[in-house]
Amino acid sequence: MLLDEMIDPSKINRSIRNTLVAGLVALFLAGSDKALSQSTELMADAQLCVEGKKTDPDLALERCDNALKSADQFSVQQRGYLLLVRGEILYTKREYRRAIGDFSAATEALPLHAMAFFGLGLAHAEAAEYDNAIASYNKAIGLDPNVAIFFAARGVAWDDKWEFERALDDLNQAIKMDQPNSRFIGVRGAIHANKGDDNSALQDLNRAIEIDPSDQESLGWRGLVHFKIGQIALAAADFDKALGINSENAQALYGRGIVKIRRGDASGNADVAAAIALDKTVADIFDRSGIR
Question: Which structural domain range is residue 238 located in?
Answer without folding.
Answer: 214-292
